[in-house]
């Protein structure tokens, strides 16, 4: 609302901005309501989605209002809307498709929390687009009629137009000023800054050389950070900072750091003959094989801490002849109750359906150790002649470590290829489409690298945010690339200046609004929300850096980037642009 406030009582667009934010809120309500009605699970990670959708919706609003301000103020509202949609619709369609597709590709991951987040957020993105081009567009048209009638933004009463070159001007009673030279709304000072100062400075040869060096430093630091990133999530981070769980894990690390999980070894074979000495020996060999495991030259299992109810029972006075089936079974109930092993033996109807022993892991301190420990234990259990299963409640988290890297890479590669296809279809130049895809890969590398510098591990939580990164990294670059291609300027440098002039300010507005939308999460007591903020901050920062610094410079290196679409030509034999096709579709439909 602040961005679109004007001293001019007619050109003031406070209500337009209000309805733009309301449109994003309606998208969240509609998508969440629909999916909850359909029974889609709602995980805690989905709670961050409204902050994200608010940023996406406001981004599209900024682009549409910016295009509206480039139209003729005295033109028909229908023509102004056609011109606005001609310029903005394709651009926000590209970003909506890429954002939604990036989230839906996240459904390929095996993690339920990630699937839930991606489904809710991807659906909300589609609703956000739908409401932007219908609900918000309708209000923009109503606001255009008010401006055309020169009515006050608050009272809707007609006010006198300010006289040209007159000092008579009152923000309450006089309004409707515009640039008489162009017939458009007077540009904001920052727009003139992008056109007069920033654009020419950016396209200067010396500046281009500096930008290349800056990008080399960015890329080098990012690649270095990618090799430093750690896997896994600290279990205490799954609880709130104020929870006693955090203190528990801190004390455990301080006092019992040499010990890892106390893993249960479960005999799942109901036909296992516990009274058979040969069968017991086979089980002892299996337990011995666990105790002999080593990890990086260090013992993985404490040999003197294995707890076996069967070993204690056989060597106790509770059973006179453990090799006799009848004696073994009849004596077992009297042993289990006082010994405390009742929960370790499933003994029903004189049959042992399952039982468990415990082995104590040691020298397990990092997520990589936990992943390797899990793999070693499972391989050993599979090689054992007795049917065994190893389990600990923390294994559900350790399982993530085994697949999180491969799944992250898979999602990034698939999504990036999908972004390339969409860019080739909607941006009328293959080289510029490749630059958009390049920007996606570059931002992803940067975010992953700087995650390590900001002490964010690669886990299922940050994996969600990297999926977000794929969608957001294309937004700013796609807007600039499309504006560059669609520009009717003659040289590549002029196209770059024109692109940053028209979209530099909306990109800055969108970035700031998105960061403001999630900045409240930086003070949250939840690791999940803080991680969401950190990665969103990196994504938006690097996205803007690429959108208004790197990509405009890189595009000028290929002056052949034009706006030809296929072989279609107008009646004068000139190539028809994608913008012209959009304009014809809108006006003919009208």
TrEMBL record:
One GO cellular component term noted in the UniProt record for this chain: sperm midpiece
Main location: membrane
Topology in membrane: Multi-pass membrane protein
Superkingdom in the source lineage: Eukaryota
Keyword line: Cell membrane, Glycoprotein, Membrane, Transmembrane, Transmembrane helix
PROSITE patterns assigned to the protein according to its UniProt record, in alphabetical order: SSD
Compartment annotation: Cell projection, Cilium, Flagellum membrane
Residues passing through the membrane, by range: 14-37, 49-68, 88-107, 119-142, 401-427, 433-454, 466-485, 505-523, 535-560
Family that this chain belongs to: Belongs to the patched family.
Record-given protein name: Patched domain-containing protein 3
């Amino acid at each position: 609302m602040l961005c679109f406030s004007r001293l001019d009582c007619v050109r003031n667009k406070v209500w337009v901005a209000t309805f733009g934010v309301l449109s994003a809120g309606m998208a969240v309500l509609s998508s969440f309501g629909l999916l909850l009605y359909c029974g889609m699970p709602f995980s805690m990670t989905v709670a961050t989605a409204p902050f994200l959708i608010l940023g996406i919706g406001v981004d599209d609003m900024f682009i549409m209002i910016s295009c509206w301000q480039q139209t003729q103020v005295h033109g028909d509202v229908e023509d102004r809307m056609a011109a606005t949609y001609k310029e903005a619709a394709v651009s926000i369609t590209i970003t909506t498709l890429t954002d939604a597709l990036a989230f839906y590709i996240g459904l390929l991951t095996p993690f339920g929390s990630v699937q839930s987040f991606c489904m809710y957020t991807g659906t909300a993105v589609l609703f956000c687009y739908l409401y932007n081009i219908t609900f918000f567009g309708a209000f923009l048209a109503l606001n255009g009629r008010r401006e055309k009638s020169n009515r006050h933004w608050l009272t809707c009463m007609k006010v006198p137009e300010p006289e040209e070159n007159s000092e008579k001007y009152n923000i309450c009673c006089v309004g409707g000023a515009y640039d008489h030279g162009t017939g458009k709304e007077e540009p904001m000072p920052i727009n003139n800054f992008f056109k007069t100062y920033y654009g020419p400075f950016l396209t200067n040869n010396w500046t281009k050389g500096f930008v290349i060096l800056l990008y080399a430093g960015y890329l080098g630091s990012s690649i270095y950070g990618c090799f430093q990133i750690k896997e896994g999530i600290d279990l205490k981070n799954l609880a709130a900072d104020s929870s006693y769980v955090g203190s528990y894990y801190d004390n455990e690390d301080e006092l019992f750091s040499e010990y890892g999980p106390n893993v249960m070894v479960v005999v799942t074979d109901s036909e296992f003959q516990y009274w058979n000495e040969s069968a017991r020996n086979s089980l002892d060999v299996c337990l011995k094989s666990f105790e002999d495991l080593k990890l990086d030259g260090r013992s993985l299992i404490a040999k003197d801490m294995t707890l076996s109810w069967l070993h204690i029972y056989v060597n106790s006075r509770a059973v006179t002849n453990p090799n006799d089936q009848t004696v073994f079974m009849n004596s077992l109930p009297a042993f289990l109750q006082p010994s405390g092993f009742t929960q370790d033996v499933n003994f029903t109807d004189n049959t042992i359906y399952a039982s468990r022993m415990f082995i104590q892991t040691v020298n397990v301190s990092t997520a990589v150790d936990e992943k390797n420990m899990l793999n070693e234990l499972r391989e050993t259990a599979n090689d054992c002649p007795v049917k065994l299963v190893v389990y600990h409640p923390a294994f559900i988290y350790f399982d993530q470590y085994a697949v999180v890297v491969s799944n992250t890479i898979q999602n990034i590669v698939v999504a990036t290829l999908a972004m390339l296809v969409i860019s080739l279809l909607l941006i009328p130049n293959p080289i510029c489409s490749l630059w958009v895809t390049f920007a996606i890969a570059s931002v992803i590398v940067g975010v992953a690298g700087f995650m390590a510098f900001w002490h964010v591990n690669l886990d299922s939580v940050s994996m969600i945010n990297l999926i977000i990164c794929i969608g957001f990294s294309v937004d700013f670059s796609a807007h600039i690339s499309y504006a560059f291609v669609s520009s009717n300027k003659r040289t590549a440098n002029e196209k770059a200046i024109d692109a940053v002039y028209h979209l530099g300010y909306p990109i800055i507005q969108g970035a700031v609004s998105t960061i403001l939308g999630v900045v409240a999460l930086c003070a949250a007591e939840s690791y999940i929300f803080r991680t969401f903020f950190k990665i969103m901050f990196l994504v938006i920062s690097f996205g803007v850096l690429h959108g208004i610094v790197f990509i405009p410079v890189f595009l000028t290196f290929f002056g052949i980037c034009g706006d030809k679409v296929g072989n279609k030509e107008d009646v004068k034999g000139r190539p028809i642009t994608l913008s012209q096709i959009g304009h014809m579709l809108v006006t003919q439909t009208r």
